[in-house]
Amino acid sequence: MTSNLRQIPLTCSGHTRPVVHLDFSDICESGYFLISACKDGSPMLRQGDTGDWVGTFEGHKGAVWGVALNKSATLAASGAADFTGKVWNAVTGGEIHSFQHKHIVKSVAFDTNSENIVTGSNEKLVRVFNLEQPNAEPEMYAGHTGALKRALFCRDDKCILSAAEDKTVRLWDRLTGNEVQRLQFPHNPNSLEISADNHILTITHGSTISFWEVDTLKKLKEVKVPTNVSSASLHPDKHVFVCGGEDFKMYKFDYITGNEIESFKGHFGPVHSVKFSPDGELYASGSEDGTLRLWQTTVGKTYGLWKCTEPGELNNSMNSHAKYMLTRYVFVN
């Protein structure tokens, strides 16, 4: 670890309002991809390792609060203030489905095989829509007493985890439709993340990050952070986690010991979302300041656009990369 080197983030501009949520695809044939939700109503797709803009999904008529990519980056989903959850073709940019709700949709997520999406809305309801039967009545899970913040499939897609502004995270059994477990917190939970190996659930609430076993909801540990934290992400190898919140800073902690490794000013506004890339080489952050930033997990490593090359070489490689991007993607809606 070359800790004497300073973090130099890649700043991705293009959004005009706060960036409130992020999601990565898995590693696929063309690398991996990053999608961002923004209050400007236009989710953006980017090449994950460089931040290069690929396309913008046009069609929402209000702030977008939640986004998701399926594992292979062929489908995207978004939830917005226009009371819809939309599913998009992530290769052409075209809209495939628009699922009507009765209030703002805050959260969207795919199941493992991209057959269903789960949504969470200000109606205090969790819904599951079948993408192969889009006109069928959705599965509905009622019980939360506050607006939904996040909902995810878990346990081989047999269950759903949901966090809401009622200071609870709840587990729902899809077979029975019932709530089967509930976690109570002193503050509203802000984010949920399931680790790359599907074993650890990361929850942020107040100035605390807690970690839970997905299969039992047994608490593994909790760590206090010096700010109210909006989002946290556990590295795929589960040795470190990153988080951000109200104080504009990015934090990195040792997951094993719970000790802070580093912190630095990450943005010019509160940090709303952080997420590790699928290979763990970088993490992305989205902020009130309208930007996404990409940060290296190991500073000084040659990766993506972080290259130790002569200025002339760097220009050449940048040009050829730009040409590749233009030939690979041709859609702009």
TrEMBL record:
SMART domains in the record: WD40
Repeat is among the record's keywords: yes
SUPFAM superfamilies: WD40 repeat-like
GO cellular component: SMN complex
Cited Pfam families: WD40
GO molecular function terms attached to this record: RNA binding
WD repeats: 57-98, 98-139, 141-182, 264-305
GO BP, one annotated term: spliceosomal snRNP assembly
Keywords attached to this entry: mRNA processing, mRNA splicing, Repeat, WD repeat
Coiled-coil spans in chain: none
InterPro entries from the UniProt entry: WD40/YVTN_repeat-like_dom_sf, WD40_PAC1, WD40_repeat_dom_sf, WD40_rpt
Record keyword Repeat present: yes
Similarity section: Belongs to the WD repeat STRAP family.
Protein known as: Serine-threonine kinase receptor-associated protein
Source organism of this protein record: Ceratitis capitata
